[in-house]
Amino acid sequence: MRTLVALCVAVWLTTATAQPAAEVIRRAVETPARSAADRERDARDKPAELMAFAGIVPGMTIADIFGAGGYYTELFSYAVDPTGRVLLVNNMSYRNSATEELRTRLGNNRLGNVEHRLVEASYMRLPANSLDLAVIVMSYHDLYYVDERGWPAIDVERFFASVHQALKPGGHFLIVDHTAAPGSGKASAQDLHRIDPQFAMEDISGRGFVLEKSWDGLRNPADDLGKNVFDSAVRGKTDRFVHLYRKR
Distance between CA 40 and CA 118 in Å, rounded? Predict the structure, then answer.
């Protein structure tokens, strides 16, 4: 009887904890201040489900790395509420790709718990043990992309070391990216802006992280993995993998 009572209490506590978190995320997505363009993007990116998968709750400190114009930054800002904090971390190239969007999103201290940081990506200098969650959405592959000007030429070892030291013990690292063909490793990052999920798992797991779980909510088996993600035939409809790693 005592075992049954204890089990019932445990279930009640779990449900009681989960419901407020789900409600906070729902309110974040439904915030009236969000733009029409962001709301249109929601159908493709399923932000409520993604934030629930990542375990985002009020009070967290999150880094949206290479977040460009800050679509996810704004969502995180509402989800962590005023007791939390969000760092939008861009290097010069990502900042320059979204200048107008950033002005609109962050102007006049519109998101009071957000700080925009402009960094050199190999040396982000994020405070040690300061983050509950680091996030890279559709930009992990850029660590292995170099254009004719040498951009971004990131020191991958130093980049991952920076993320690792910035996370609190047990902190998490969320990766969302465009899927490349199995066995292609990082090769597709250059021409297709894709990366092999198996390569990602081995790459990140070898840098002080453990893959805790994955989510198939953004998968699309109809995607042509041989096409560049900006090709009109697949743009906005790519097969995307989602991995959540934990700092060892």
Answer: 28
Joined together, the tokens standing for residue 84 give: 């939390």
Give me the sheet containing 131-137, strands edge to edge: 114-118, 85-90, 61-65, 131-137, 167-178, 240-247, 209-215
Residue ranges per structural domain of the chain: 2-247
Tell me how far apart the alpha carbons of residues 159 and 203 are, in angstroms, rounded to a whole number.
13
AA letter at 213: K
User: pLDDT (tens digit, 9 = 90+) per residue, 84-98?
Assistant: 999 999 988 889 889
User: Residue 127's CB: how many other CB atoms inside 10 A?
Assistant: 10
pLDDT of residue 14: 40
Half-sphere exposure of 219 (CA within 13 A, CB side): 9
User: Which amino acid is present at 14?
Assistant: T
CATH of domain 2-247: 3.40.50.150
H or E, element range at 245: strand 240-247
Query: From the DSSP assignment, how many helices (H) and strands (E) are in the chain?
Result: 9, 7
Token readout for 68 is 């460009």
pLDDT at res. 150: 52
Mention every residue, 6+ apart, whose C-beta is less than 8 A from residue 142: 66, 152, 154, 189, 193
Instruction: Report phi then psi at 108, rounded to 5.
Output: 55, 35
**% of residues, the chain, pLDDT over 70:** 90
Three-class secondary structure of residue 138 per DSSP: coil
Strand partners, 27: none
Residue 120 Cα to chain centre, angstroms: 19
